[in-house]
Amino acid sequence: MTERLRVVANAEPVQTGVKNASALAAGLRHAVADTYRLIFKTHAYHWNVEGPQFYVLHHLTDEQYNQMFPAADALAERIRALGELAPFSLAEVMKLSVITDLEGLPTTQEMIEDLAKDHAVVAVGFHALFKLAVESNDPVTADLATRRLAFHEQAAWMLRSTAK
Question: Which pTM was predicted?
Fold first, then answer.
């Protein structure tokens, strides 16, 4: 029985007609990393936001991080379906992500602007992933990228509109 628990995951070729599976998996790994970093940042701002817009921002950030968590799972599972390995350490997530932290605890205004910027940057990454997926004959990843970039574009718009 214990032998069954000693299995270590590994990458394996999967033949489904998708071209460039390794490149797609790399793009998806970046997407998972960005999503996880943005989940944490959004949650941290959710915990620490204050001021006259507290209620609205507390609920907006709650809605956003709750939508991102299952998305990270879907992205990681797509990597595995392509025969590659998903990120498995926080160090790898930190290394792969384009999301950065502000120095010190930001003001509420800075939090909103920072999240808007991050969602826009992540949307750009999903645009690139979508293009690669189409070029690689991968409608599943293209669909996933479309749904995620729509979410991030809308989140950026909502946050920009709130920041005015």
Answer: 0.90
